[in-house]
Design goal:
4-stranded antiparallel sheet; rod-shaped; kinetochore; 237 residues
């Protein structure tokens, strides 16, 4: 068996130096890595702290904004709660106004219908009035023509005082004063005759009576006979 060859002290020393150099190099590398790691951790920590601080600031701003919004919302809710009775009252009044408007519209339609009916009735009444006035004028004209005999015998004179007002004047009533004039006026403008006045005055009761009789029989001749008789009766009082 061959004896084991032992390394020389120089070789061992050289090997130790290499090991030490390698260990030192590794130690330096580890130290460098540790420094870089510490620097990176410190930088990361600083960035994290900075970001955390920014987030905290933003969070505070958000909380302040939320607080302001809540306060504003509470104020609006309180204001709405205060205004709500007024809103309900206004709404009720609006509903009443709408109901009144509906009733007014219904009334307007009814009134318009009534106006149309009244217009129709008025037109019919005016047509009847025109027709009756025409008949009245014709009757007066006919009676006046027939009264020419009365005019000659009884001293009757007929004249128009105003538009639609006819004056009948009598003489030969008072035997002591045959020239004395007695007169009576009638209005023929309307549907019925209207006795306006007499001279001497026969009184409102007698004038109303002869007016009523005239509008009943529509005869001017009968009317004049009655009036002449009433004038004669005044001589006896």
């Amino acid at each position: 068996m061959d004896p084991v060859e032992r390394p020389s002290p120089q070789a061992i020393s050289h090997s130790l130096q290499q090991v030490q150099q390698t260990a030192m190099a590794r130690s330096k590398a580890i130290a460098h890595l540790q420094e870089k790691l510490h620097a990176s951790v410190a930088s990361t920590s600083d960035n994290y702290q900075h970001q955390l601080a920014q987030l905290h600031i933003q969070l505070q701003a958000v909380e302040r904004e939320q607080s302001l919004q809540r306060a504003k919302q509470q104020q609006q809710q309180q204001q709405l709660a205060q205004e709500l009775p007024t809103i309900h009252r206004d709404l009720h009044q609006l509903q009443q106004s709408l109901s009144q408007l509906d009733r007014l519209q219904t009334n307007i339609v009814s009134i318009q219908q009534q106006i149309a009916d009244l217009d129709r009735q008025q037109a019919e009444a005016e047509a009847r009035l025109v027709q009756r006035s025409k008949r009245t004028r014709e009757a007066v004209t006919r009676d006046i023509n027939n009264l020419e005999t009365y005019s000659r015998l009884l001293g009757l004179r007929i004249e128009a005082r105003k538009p639609n007002i006819i004056k009948f004047s009598f003489t030969n009533i008072d035997p002591r004063h045959p020239e004395r004039v007695y007169q009576i006026d009638i209005d023929i403008s309307g549907e019925d005759f209207v006795v306006v006045a007499s001279a001497p005055d026969l009184g409102s009761n007698l004038l109303s009576l002869v007016e009523h009789e005239l509008n009943d029989h529509r005869s001017v001749g009968k009317f004049l006979k009655t009036v002449r008789h009433l004038f004669k009766e005044t001589l006896e009082t």
